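Per your request, structure below.
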């Protein structure tokens, strides 16, 4: 195999899988104040999302990837529905689910601080229908209540209390 062939093959793998790419989101509350960040990196065939938030109500909160890269407060309805290119039902416990944007809940402690590392094998930073960088973009939304992991369309997770547009990070 020639070196040129290997270089082309590596470039295609890099571009289509998102390998080596990263993304981030600055998470804001309904008043537009920064309350956290999310770092997103390629992980296996999917992504790992490291979320750090503060100034949120204590408790368990649903967190999802939404289909539009807009976070206009106070209700964040501009972020659209959950990212769902395969047209499935909501929730990991739903036999007809989950949406590609469904994630596990995030816990916020009594001081309003929450941290979570969430893995999602159904989305990618590369190309294709499962890409977080499809036309129109995507966003990360935190809800007021916990996600029950089964009720369509959003797991009874309540209103949207924080949102961050997912953007490509600069290469280092």
């Amino acid at each position: 195999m020639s070196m040129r062939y290997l270089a082309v093959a590596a470039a295609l793998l890099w571009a289509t899988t998102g390998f080596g790419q990263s993304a981030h989101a600055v998470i804001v509350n309904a008043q537009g104040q920064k309350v956290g960040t999310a770092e997103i990196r390629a992980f296996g065939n999917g992504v790992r999302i490291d979320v750090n938030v503060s100034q949120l109500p204590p408790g368990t909160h649903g967190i999802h990837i939404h289909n539009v890269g807009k976070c206009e407060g106070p209700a964040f309805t501009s972020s659209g529905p959950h990212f769902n290119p395969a047209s499935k039902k909501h929730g990991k416990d739903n036999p007809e689910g989950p949406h590609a944007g469904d994630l596990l809940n995030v816990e916020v402690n009594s001081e309003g601080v929450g941290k979570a590392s969430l893995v999602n094998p159904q989305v990618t930073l590369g190309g294709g229908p499962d890409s977080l960088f499809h036309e129109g973009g995507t966003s990360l939304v935190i809800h007021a209540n916990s996600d029950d992991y089964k009720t369509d369309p959003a797991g009874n997770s309540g209103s949207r209390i924080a949102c961050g547009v997912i953007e490509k990070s600069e290469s280092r």
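DSSP finds one helix and ten strands in the chain.

Regards,
D.
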